[in-house]
Amino acid sequence: MDGLQNNSNARVITQWHQLFVNQGADCTADAYAHWQNVERLGLPTRQHKDWKYTPLDGLLMHNFVSATASTVSASDLEALSLTMDAYRLVFINGRLAPTLSDSNTGVWQVKLEEGAARRPLPAPILPDVFLHLTESLSQETTRIHLPTNKVAQQPLYLLHISQGCKEKDKLNMLHYRHHLDIGANAQGQVIEHFISVNNKGHFSGAFTSIAVGNNSHFDHVKLAVENSASYHFGHNDISVGRNAIVRSNTFILSTGLTRHQTNVQLNDEGAELEINSLLLPSGQSISDNRTYLEHNKGYCLSRQLHKIIALDRSKGVFNGLIKVAKHALKTDGKMMNHNLLLDLLAEVDTKPQLEIYADDVKCSHGATVGPIDLEQMFYLRSRGITRQDAQQMMIYAFAAEITKKNCHDAVCNTVLKYIADLYRGWRYDLSY
Q: Could you give the number of structural domains in the chain?
């Protein structure tokens, strides 16, 4: 294996292997191939450059078990759901819950594939060990199709409810696998929502692959609000066709350790892409967000804006790469990362990158890290605004640049309420 072989590493791989073996006849050839990659790669350590700022020490302390089947009441479901007009699919502990999901999904076509009946899926764009783990341990695939020339009047809302294990030092293993096929000239929005139902820890693996057809308009939103005892490893792969317009927004509001990767390939001319993210680590949590974008054809435009607001002793990480292929002329790409530190012990590590092999392109990237601007604070205070209100206004304004970008009102309101609850009573030290 490429990963460092210490006792914790070997013990965890052995436990995961047993979970894989327990699938028995439900295992497909693809799942077996992905499991071989898990064994080949092993668990990364901080000596790996891509994992330098994302330690897995806490994860390795746990014992891993398969999540048992569970359900939630109708009243609890409504309390957990976002309030919106949408077609809702509910997943509990990694499995679709048909009785809690809408049977009518409008123009969205939904098909569930389980066990050995699962068909092969597209090869991942930039896999890592946790993507291979989700591919090998997930028990079902949700295939979602928006047919050619169809416009979805309501978004498709995927609600993922994860339950932690009540036994100490044990983590439920939950894996969600979705594949979206957006037909040519189609238009729609998908909202993925991840939430915990108790304060116990769980391991959530999520992989959503998306193929967007020519001339389509597609919006994807991911909102993760899992508890601080949990671990979330998510991946989104997006392949974009000619003249298609795609927008992807990611909001990570909690979870003890989160690592989310968005990989995109612009595979034909005229495509437009927008990727935005907002991370709100607090306590001692770690939120790691990564993007990888390939401009494989010319005359494409991409815009990225990523923000982190770090509080307490938390850590935020951003790593982004724009890669422009040799013949991708007239590429226009921009990636920005802005970070707000709200405590002396908060930390943000950022690394935006460009890799350009073509001439006649326009690409830029940049990053900022710092505390609240004291001059802006003085300006607001001099207008009679209280210190706490001024602080909250500046935090809201910092976050709003992301929440207002083609995001559903229900998601925007949830994010802003979370910010209000998190920073209520917090006082910024002006001597910082």
A: 2
